Amino acid sequence: MTTLNIDTQVKEESAEPERDSAREQGASLVRRARALAIDMCPPVTAAASAGVLSHILAGQVWAVLCWGIVALSGLFIVANSIIYQGRTGRTAGKYLEGLRTVSTTTGAPIGVLRALIRLGCLPADGILFLIGRFWPLHRGQRRTFADNIAGSVVRTYDTEGPTDGRRRLGMTAAAVIPLGAVLLLVLVQFFSQRAADQEITAAHGSVTQVASDGAVALLSYKPDTVDQELDAARGVLTGDFLETYTKLAKDVVAPTAKDKQVTMQASAAGSAVESVSADQASVLVYINQSTTTANSPETTQSQNAIRVGLTRVDDTWLISKFEPLF
């Protein structure tokens, strides 16, 4: 029995240097990566959400809100990665992972100033990714470029037993998965909105062309072919305006053109999109128009601006409103 106790004591004493050696070597890449993911998920998710909101929502109030979210994200990074880490050696992620950033010389927390220097050097680790992140982490104390500059090392201070490992992994998952889900939803919304915006941008050219050509067709006819020309113009109309124009063309325009030998020729001098959405648009069309009649064979010139409303029907833009402005 005494021999067994002595053997057990010897094994425990021999295990202590191994644990101290592992601690001196520095934390593993996997645990550091999990800690970094926990630290970065909240600010990245918040900043991404603010970016999507600013892209989708308009107005000064929303702009202030979005910038406020970005500012809070920055404050979180300062408080977590600089102040808290500098004073205690831990961040939220390192706390969950049982890690601590300490000085290589004293083993104490590195202080706020050196934590700031370390954070500022992290982009260099990203630029020198293979050299700054992986290669040093497999050598000696597993220090990155930022660690070398700040004189710091990330060490393991909690026992990685089975129970602690499961608890730590569960806490990590509980922190990262919800934030990751929010970030995923934000990205899906962003790309969906971006696709819709690109479709609307592409529609600008279509609506201006339809509005300009339609306005010219509605305002151009000759006495001999007025019926055919007005009937062709009806092909680009829809809704109540189609019915109104059909009645006006049949009862007023066509009889007057034939009776008084009216010839009208319009041309589009320019156009400007007022608004456009997925299925509605409004375009200003500037028209130059020449008119001759049997009683006045000399050509009369006039100009007008017309607000043309368009509706998308089965992927085709049709004119639904036609409002001369002067």
TrEMBL record:
Coiled coil: none annotated. It comes from the Bacteria. Residues 1-24 are annotated as: Disordered. Residues 9-23 have a biased composition (Basic and acidic residues). Residues 27-151 form the RDD domain. GO terms for cellular component: membrane. It is found in: Membrane. The chain crosses the membrane at residues 61-84, 169-191. Keywords: Membrane, Plasmid, Transmembrane, Transmembrane helix. It is a multi-pass membrane protein. InterPro entries: RDD. Its main location: membrane. PANTHER family: OUTER MEMBRANE PROTEIN RV1973. This is RDD family protein.
